[in-house]
Structures are given as structure tokens and as C-alpha cells.
Amino acid sequence: MTDGMERPLLEIDQLRKSYGTFEALRDVSLQVRRGEIFALLGPNGAGKTTLIGVVAGLVRRNAGSVRVDGWDVERDYLTTRRLVGLVPQELNFDPFFNVEELLRFQAGYFGVALTPAALDELLAAVGLTDQRRRTTRALSGGMKRRLLIAKALVHRPALLFLDEPSAGVDVELRRDLWAYVRRLRDAGTTVVLTTHYIEEAEELADRVGVIDHGRLLLVEDKATLMQRMGRRQVAALLTTPIASLPPAAVEAGWTLERDGLRVVREAPSAEPVGPALRQLLSAGVDVHDLEVRPPRLEEVFRQLVAAGEGASR
Amino acid sequence: MSRFSLGFRTLLLKEIRRFWRVAGQTVMAPLVTTTLYFVIFGFTPGARGSELHGLPYARYIMPGLLMLGVATNAFANASSSFFMMKLQGTIVDLLVAPLSHAEVLTAFVLAAVVRGLVVGGCVWMVGSLFTGFEVAHPLWLLVFVVLVAAFFGAAGLVVAIWADKFEQLNLFPSFIVTPLTFLGGVFYSVARLPPLLQSVARVNPVLYMVEGARYALLGRSDIGPWSGLALVGGLTLAALALAWRWLSTGYKLRS
């Protein structure tokens, strides 16, 4: 069934899911490549969790096909579930057992007898070594999130879904988590993360998909997308305040901020800064320093969602 | 190499360890209740010395109390464990795992049978201390205890899948199992009822379970063991089939 490394690990074609009259997913087609971090972005209720639920086996599709490594997620569920790990959005815990027991159980469900060394490695990777004998009731929210991640990784899945992994997570854990996700990717795990926290996707993703109202609006390499749709802001800091900008600088797109000490210009990332900067200098503006704010994925995301809403009206 | 998958064995072991971890609640509590029944109905003034069908009353009620313990505990094991998993969200751990529906069903029902056997064994021990250790047909006893536990385990799973809140979970034991059990000849002989009430009582499936245990333990009953076996076997198959159907279609589990 596996045709070599070129075949995408996840293939979704014309996927549809409705709840009554509400269409949660509308003809979604998506391919996720092996070894990439793919971020699925969308506002709350866009269909992100439903989409990964279909792949993981929590949601039944109405139409379309979903394959993991060539295997159908419903017909061949015993095979695909061994390939998939899911970190759900909602924290859950079993008060009867401690961290170590739960990891052993979860490994067992996947047919994996967890060796002591593998258990130690997993606990260390998610920072739960000191908590291994604690019942899950006694864990903090962040620790519970780490346990969910460890449970999803216990069978070493080829495809890991992280559903809103930063929800309710403090800054330190978020940074740890991001570093760990990168290490997983580097070790060959394909990671799909859903998030409405755009900074997360900006930080981690190789490719991004934007989903809204159940429709996949775009799938693109993150760097290409930022280059194509992102806008860069350049600010020139002046030596002495000025009352107004020379007309040539205004024509080049520069605007003077109220303090008279800062001149800014925002333009598409793809457009070179040089010409506009030269025009500013030629107009006699005395520039002391420059600040460049790189394009933000959040702005691109907003544009896409706004355009998608406009199109669906 | 075991014929059973590691996933199945893990789930079964986990379910058994779950109730064993709180044995005070899951094993000792029903034992205390049963002991009180024996003391009150067998040895308090008024009850002491009374007989039914030529047997001391405490001995006569022992099979019914044993079945009551087996049924309620098998039901509680499957229903509470599965429902708590739904409530606390840990059901996701099972739903994403490569476990077949038959494995999930069998693990929950077997764990319920194990608890039924443990509680039933304890009730028998306590009852025997009061009334003697003779068992007329040990194999029949084992068959009835296992079948009744399997039926109530499967029924517990069905109710847990269906229920959305605790109140619904308690409907079955409170409004069906307990009344049927108390009207099912645990404390009296249906042969002594007026003809009309006898006909009504014979519609109650719990009666066949109690009488089956009575035949197995005491060697005599108002209803023969084979009809009880057929009825309980049929009910068990029906409950297992419904539980398997709901697990495989994802009813109330997968959206």
C-alpha cells in the first residue's frame, strides 16, 4: 500500500461532513506531506477539529475519501489508527491511575509493550519524569496537556495531530512544546496542528492551510504565502523632528507619524524596499536608523478569512 | 503468543484494576449490604426459625441475594466505568486506538463478569457462614453467575453509551433492575403467590435468574434451570448484540 516516500502521508479528497443542516466540512481536499509541519488555521467553529476528528476516527464522514499512508480511515481503521496520534483540544484525565500507568495502558491499546527505557524517554521528553507516580487528578493544567501529548506519542505515530495545543498553556510550556514539535518533525514525524493562535503557526509551520465555514480557502508553503500576501512595514527614525514630509517622499508611500520623528511605509513583502528608501533619502529626509517589521501571518490570515467570507456571501 | 491482542488484554486488565483499586466501594460495600440482609431476614426476631419449602429462610434467600449482588455489581462496573470515560473525555483514548469493537465490548463485559464473580463469591462466602456451604449443582451455579453477570455487564455498557447524564445512568438500576429483583422471588416463592400474580411474576426475567441460582445452590426451584438458561442466554446475546451494534456504528460516541 505504501508507494514510497513521494506519496503524501495524508490524502483527503472531497470530504464532506454535516450535522443536520450545518455543513461542518464542505468538499475539503488536502494532502499532507511526509515529515512536514502543517498548520491548519481557522477561526473557532471553522471545521478544524472536525477535520482531524475524521482522520483520527472520532467523526464519521458523510462523503469523500480520507487515507493515511494509502489506507482508508474507516474501512482500514485498525491500520490507520496505529499510524495516527491525536492530542485532543479538551483536557481529560482518569483519576484512578497515575501518569506511568496511563501511559502503559495507552501503549497497550496500540499493541505496544512499553519498555522501561521507552517510558523514561517519553516522560523526559514531555517533562513529566518527576510526576510519573502522581495521579492525573493532582496534575496542573499544563502537566495534563503534557500527559496528553505523551499519550498521543506512546505508539510513535507517523502522523501526529495537535488540536489547539497551546490552549490554556503558559508561555514557558508553549516554547517547550514548540521545540519538541520541531524535534519530532526532524525525527520524521509528520505533524498537523490546528490553531487559531496564528503566532504558533508562524513559528512552526512549513505549510499552512486556512479553513473557514468548513471550506479550505488556501493551502500554501508558509514562506511563499508570506512573500505573496504578507506586508512588510519599514520605519525610518529621524535625527530631528520634522513638521511635514517632502512631496517626493509622500509619493513614494511614506507617512509621517505624529511625533515627527518616525516615517513609515507599508508595502507587500515581495516589493523591494530599496527604491522607496532611496526616494526618502533623495527628498532630504535625515534618517538616523531603520526598523523593519516583517510580514505577519496573522494579517495574511485575516485577509484570507475576510476574502473567504466575502466570496461566500 | 496470546491469541488475544495486547490491546484487548490491556483494556481488560485496566478495567479490573479500576474496580479493584476502590475495592472498599466496589466489593466491600455490597458485601456489607448483603450481610445486613442475612442478619435482618434470617436472624432477627420474627424471622428466626422461619422456613420456606422446608429450608431455613436465610438459606432460601441466599441464591437471590447472590444474584442481586452479581447483577448490580456487573451492571455498575460496565456502566460507571464507560460513562465516566465519556464524562471525563478519556473515551477519546479508546476511540482513537486500534481496538476492534468486539475487543472493546468483550473487555468491558469480561471485567463486569470478574467483578460479578468476586462479589458473588464474597456473598456466597458470607451467606454460607450463616447457612452452610453446600452447593447442589456447582456447575449450574457458575453458568448462571457468569451469564447473569455478562447480561448485566452488556446492559450496563448499553446504558452507558446511551446516557448523557448521571440521572439517565441511574434509571436502569433504580427503576428496572431493583424492582424486578425484589419482585423476582428473591425473598419469596412465586409458587406461593395467587395464580394471577404467579402469571405476572413469570414475565419477570430476573425470576428465572434467581430460580436458576436457587436450583444450583439448593437443588430445588419453582422454575427448571433449562428454561432459565435459555432465557438468560437469549437476553445476554441480545444485550451483547445491541452493545456491539452501538459500538460499531459509533452511536453517541462518534459524531
What does this structure look like?
The complex is a heterodimer of chains A (313) and B (255). Chain A has 313 residues and is α/β, with parallel strands linked by helices. Chain A folds into 2 domains: 10-226, P-loop containing nucleotide triphosphate hydrolases (Rossmann fold, 3-Layer(aba) Sandwich), CATH 3.40.50; 231-294, Alpha-Beta Plaits (2-Layer Sandwich). Chain A has helices at 48-56, 77-83, 99-109, 116-125, 141-153, 171-186, 198-204, 222-229, 247-251, 274-282, 297-312, and strands at residues 10-19, 22-32, 37-41, 63-68, 71-72, 84-87, 159-163, 190-195, 207-212, 215-221, 231-238, 255-256, 262-268, 287-293. Chain A has a 6-stranded mixed β-sheet with strand order 6-7-8-3-9-10, with helices on both faces. A 4-stranded antiparallel β-sheet of chain A has the order 2-1-4-5, covered by helices on one side. Chain A has a 4-stranded antiparallel β-sheet with strand order 12-13-11-14. Chain A is elongated, with a radius of gyration of 24 Å. Chain B is mainly alpha-helical and 255 residues long. Chain B has one domain. Chain B is built from 10 helices and 2 strands, in the order ααββαααααααα. Chain B has helices at 6-21, 23-43, 57-88, 91-95, 101-131, 138-162, 166-182, 195-201, 205-218, 225-249; strands at 51-52, 55-56. In chain B, strands 1-2 form a two-stranded antiparallel sheet. In chain B, β1 and β2 (55-56) form a beta hairpin. The chains are: A alpha/beta (313), B mainly alpha (255).
